[in-house]
Amino acid sequence: MPRNTVYVVGAGASYELDLPVGNKLKEHIAKILYMSFEHGSFKDGNYDLYQTIRRHTGNNSSETNEYLKECRHISNNMPLAISIDNFIDSERGNDKLALCGKMAIVEAILEAERKSKIFFARYQGTEKINFPRLENTWYLPFFRTLTENCRADDLQDRFRTITLVIFNYDRCIEHFLIHALMSYYRLQERQAAEIVGSLKIIHPYGTVGSLPWQDQASSTRMEYGGELQTQQLIEYAQRIRTFTEGAHSEHMDQLRHSMMHAERLVFLGFAFHRLNMELLMGATEDKYENPLKIDCFATAFETSNNDQESISASIKYLYKGEIKINIENTTCAMLFRDNSRSLGYA
Strands, E, within the chain: which ranges? Predict the structure, then answer.
C-alpha cells in the first residue's frame, strides 16, 4: 500500500525554478512600492500602483497619501526586514500597510512566475514546458517519484495518499504537474486536472489566483504568470494572507488530518519559522498521535549543526510517537536524488 506522505513546501523549493527569495525578493518588493513625487505630482516609480491606490480611495487625497506613506515605509525598510511577511507582522493591525505589502507580493509573484523555468506563453504558440531546463531542479525527480510504476489509471489512487502543504503564494507545483501529466501520459487537460485534483493541495496563506483549470467559478482566476489589470490588484491582494493573519480556516481540518496520518513527512525549502510550525500543529497545542513510525526528510541548506539540532527538535515537537528525522544540508533536488528509494513507491 502507498504510504501517506505529506510534503511541506517553502520558498526555497521555488528557488530552483528561479523565483526570487530572501534579499532578492525584498529588493523587488521595495522596487514595486517605490514612488516619488515633486510638488505634489507623481514623478517616478510605479505609476500603475499609484493609480490603483487612488481608485481604491475614491481619489481621496488624504487617504491616498496615507497609503503612499505606508508604501514608502515598506520600501525604505526592506533591507532591515527578515521578509515582507515579518515586516507586516511587526505592525500587525495596520491594515493599510498590510494591503500595500500584499499588493507588492501579488505583483512580485506573478512577475516571478513569468520569469520562471516552467513558464511558457500560449499566445506565442508554445503549448508545453521545456522539461530539459528542469534537469537540475527537484521537479523532475519529484514527478518520477509520484509516477513510479504507475499507469495513468493508477495515479488517482496514489495521489490520494499525498498531501502538499505549500506555504508559497505561487502556483509552480500545480502548473508543473498538470503539464507534466499531459505530456507524459498523453492526457487532455481535463483528464490531467482530475488526477491533480486527487492530491490534497493546501495553501495555508492562499495564492495569487486560481489557475484556469482549477476553479471555473473563481472571480480571481489567473493564468500562470498572467498580468493583472490595475483595477484587479486590490481584489487579488485581498485573496492572500500573511502569517500574521494566520491560515485560511477552511484548510485546518484537512491539514490536521493529513499530518495526523502521515507516515512520511518531507520538508522542502522550508525555513521552519515558529509561526509556520505552529500552523502545522493546526491551531492547537495537542501533539499528533500516530501509532506508526514516521520517516521525516528535510532540507536545511547552508545551515549549521546547531540550527539543524534546533530544527530537529521543532519537528519532534509535532508528534508524540516515534519519528525518524533525516535533516540534510542540501538542496531539494539533491534530497530526492540521494533518497530516491526512501522517497519512492517501488
Answer: 5-9, 35-38, 41-45, 162-166, 200-202, 264-268, 294-299, 323-328
- What whole-number distance in Å separates Cα of residue 165 and Cα of residue 276? 11
DSSP annotation of 117: T
Could you give the CA distance from residue 301 to residue 270 in angstroms, rounded to a whole number? 10
Instruction: Answer for the pair 266, 3: CB distance below 8 angstroms, yes or no.
Output: no
Q: Say yes or no to pLDDT of 304 above 60.
A: yes
Residue 114: Cβ within 10 Å count: 14
Burial of 109 (0-12, 13-18, 19+ CB in 10 A): buried
CB atoms < 10 A from the CB of 101, how many?
24
Q: Reduce the secondary structure of 167-233 to three states and give it as a string.
A: CCCCCHHHHHHHHHHHHHHCCCHHHHHHHHCCCEEECCCCCCCECCCCCCCCCCECCCCCCCCHHHH
Task: Output the pLDDT for position 128.
Answer: 87
Half-sphere exposure of 71 (CA within 13 A, CB side): 24
Output the pTM of the full model: 0.92
CATH classification for the domain delimited by 5-19+130-206+246-343, as one of 1.10.1240, 3.40.50, 3.30.110, 3.30.450: 3.40.50
3-state secondary structure of 16: coil
Determine the Cα–Cα distance for residues 38 and 36; give it in Å rounded to an integer: 7
Residues of the chain with CATH 3.40.50: 5-19+130-206+246-343
- SS3 state at 262: coil
pLDDT tens digits along 208-255? 999 999 876 677 889 999 999 888 999 999 989 887 776 666 778 899
Rounded-to-integer distance, Cα 110 and Cα 106, Å: 6
pLDDT in tens, 138-147: 999 999 999 9
